Protein 1
Amino acid sequence: MREFKRTDRVADQLQQELAVLIQREIKDPRLGMVTVSSVKVSRDLGYADIYITLLGENDAARIDENLKVLRHARGFLRSQIANRIKLRHVPELRFHYDESVVRGQRLSSLIDEAVADDRRRHEDDDEDEVR
C-alpha cells in the first residue's frame, strides 16, 4: 500500500478548496464554468500548479480570458485558502489550462473513426465473399 506524501495531501485539499472558492466567491462575469482538474504542489510547498478546464469552451481567447481572471484573483484565493487550511505557508498559485481533456476527446474521436472504418471495411469484405 502506497503512503501519501504531504504534497499529495496538500494538493488534494487545495483542489477541493479552490473548486469551491472559484465557483462561489469569484463574481467576475467573464469567468466561465471552471473545473479544477488537478493540482500539483512543489516539494517545498512554495508553488501550486493548478490545472483547469472550461465546460464547453475550446476557444483560445475565452481560455486566456478565464486564466487572466483567475490570475488576477490569485491573491484573494491565497488569502481565503490561508483562512481555510492550516499551513505555515500557502503556496503561490499558478494557473494553467489542462489540455489533457481536449487531447483525450480528440483521441477518443480518432479511435471511434478508426473502429467505424474497420467495420465498414469488414462489411464490404463480407459482401464481396457473398457474391
Protein 2
Amino acid sequence: MEKYGLERDPSPPRFQRQDRRVSHFVRRCLVALCICLVIYVAFYRPHASSRSNSDPESIPETNDDGKDPVQQPLSATLDDVETSESSFDAATGHRVPLEAHIMSKCPDARYCLDELIVPAMVQIHDKVKFRLSFIGRASNSSSNVSCMHGPSECIGNMLLLCAANLPFPPETKNYTKTPTVRSLGFAHCLISNYQRIPERAFVEDCALEHGVDFRAINECASRQFDEVDEPSGGGDDGDESDPDKISGLALLRKSFMRNERLGIRKSCTVRVDKKIWCIRDGGVWKDCAQDGKGGEVPTLVEHIEQLWKERN
C-alpha cells in the first residue's frame, strides 16, 4: 500500500519564528518613529520659532549706535588694542629686580642656579625682572677682556649674553628680547655642564632644547667690535635699531664694567631690588639676608612676593 506522508514545510520552524520576530521588530520601529514625529511637531517647532524671535544668539550683532561692526573704522579696533595693552600693563604691574652676578664656568654659579635661582624662578617668574650679569676684567685702554677661568669662560659669558639680548623671534626687526624663560633655561643648560663650554655640539644641543637660535647666538658671539668701535653693538644699552649688529664682546665689556662699578667681584652674588641678597662663594652661602636664610628658595620667594604685593 502506498503511503502518503504529510507535506513538510520547506522552512524549518525556527526560521518561521525568526521571521515573525523580525516583522514585529520592524512594526515597533515604525510605531516609535511615528511617535517621535508627533512629539517633534507638537513641542519642538513652537519652541524653535519662539527662540528665533527672542534668543540673543540669533540676533545680528550691532554696536550701540545700531551699525554693523564691520563698517566701523579701523581706528576703533586699534583703540581697543591699546586699551587691552594698557590693561595688561596695569595687571602686570611693577616687577621686582632680581639679578645673579656670575662667571659661566664657576662651580658656585652652577650651585646658585641649580639650588636657588631656577627653583625660585619657577614660582616668581611673573613677578621679577630677571638679569644675568658676568664678572671679569675689561681694559679701559683697549677692547681686551679677561676671565678668571680662562678664555673659554669669556666665550661662555658672551654666548649667554647674546642669547638674552637677541631679538625674538630671530627674524623680527622689532627689538623684543628673548623671553627670560628661554635665555635662563639656555644658561642653566650650559652652566650645569660648564666643563664642556664652548663645545659647538654642546651649545647647539642646549640652544635647540630651549628654543633659541644657535646661528644668531654664534654670529653675535663672533663679532669682535665693542661699543667704542660700533655704537650699535651694545644691544642692551646702545642703539637697538639694528639687532643684526649686536656684539658679544660689547655686551661682555659692558657687563664687566657695570659689575666693577657696583663693586661685585664674587660669583655667585644674588641681588634683590638692587641690594645684595646672598653670596655663594667657596662652596658656602655668605652674607645672606633674612638672618642667613637668603640662600633658601622659600625665603627668596616669600620676600619677592612681599615686595610685589607692596608695589602692585
